[in-house]
Amino acid sequence: MAVGYNKIFDDLNKAIGDTKHKCEHDKFPAGNNNVSSGIIRVRSKHRPSAKELVQNWLSGYAKSNGLVYQEKDYPNISSHECIEIYGFIKSAKTDNLQKKEQLRIFFKFPDGADKPDYSDIWNTGLKYLFDNGHRPLKITPKNAYEVEVMTTINQGIEEIGKGKGIKLKIGGGNYHSDIVGCVGTKGNQHADFVFVNTSGHKKIFVTYKDGKSSTSFQQYSGITSKAGTTIANNNQVVSWVKDVEDNWDAEQKAQPGVALHRSIVGDGLKKKAVWGHETKGGGGGPNNCNIFAQGTPKFKGDKTKCTLIFDTKVVNKGNLNKLKDDYDPTLGARKGEAYRKVGSKSGVRGGIFSKGYLTQRKNKPF
After folding, report:
1. Could you name the CATH architecture of 5-114?
2. Phi/psi class of residue 170: alpha, beta or left (left: φ > 0; alpha: ψ in -120 to 50)?
3. What torsion do the CA atoms of 274, 277, 281, 285 make, to the nearest 10 degrees?
4. Range with lowest mean pLDDT among 6-15, 47-56, 296-305
5. Over 70: is that where the pLDDT of 108 sits?
6. Where is 362: in which H helix or E strand?
7. Quick one: residue 301, left, alpha or beta (phi over 0 = left, psi -120 to 50 = alpha)?
8. What are the boundaries of each domain within the chain?
9. Rounded to whole angstroms, how far apart are CA atoms 280 and 272?
10. 257 vs 44, more confident
């Protein structure tokens, strides 16, 4: 059954709209205006999760209503990918307008008091890069709380380098010359901050968590294909998903609200969860991070030799000795929002969490 703009928006809002996800739209194309495209916005403090929520809803809704959709990138409109929908009933005023007619869902941070302050996020060196052939680097963070962290880092580099690049290392990592600042990453890439030099080359990849302890963040990694096939297809993950599917209802009946968890055998899966599914030896990349960091950033040194540390954790790639005990990466499943799934089981959030996050609540080794 074909559907139009208002029906799609109303059904989307009914399915996902809540205090964490605000749905809104601009004026839709109609016979009494000259609008050529429909724009829907979903506002949330965590844009990747909001996009995943919409995609989960669309997977069934699109099939039932003859729609198709895909992720699209419009960097001049948004630093985060949108979802473009096709097959809806077009309603623009003229044939020419209908040829241009599109429906897009964009993902934005909330308006009002919670809206991140972007005014100082880019320093002089980064602005120069953006204006001189490196505009695609201009990507803001995925999470609202990371805006403040990125701003602190970029303004710190500005203060030390006086608008020029500095020689920088993070924690116990290697020094890199002419680092001018850090930027965000696209979509489901594991890195949160990417440090670039004055030539626009990406040099250091950091996966970042907020807070002061292992209980301050929810998970290192998901366990679906979006986390990477080397994680989703890992034998331990496949076995875990199957066991959660088969036993979740019985475990919840016996202990309502209980979180289930299982220790991971060996280091390979743990490393991929923490530093990205492409984790390997040297170098770095958006899914092969150099550093796991948590807490407030602080600089030591000058532009000729500067070290960036984070006051809770700074862990070089592969060094699981610094992620022991409560930080130990652990397979887990807890009660989640209705759209969350582990395998075919809805209402469950699965992932690789810190052990401390899972054991702080009602829990059961499983």
Report:
1. 2-Layer Sandwich (3.30)
2. beta
3. -90
4. 47-56
5. yes
6. none
7. left
8. 5-114, 124-212+270-320, 225-266+325-365
9. 9
10. 257
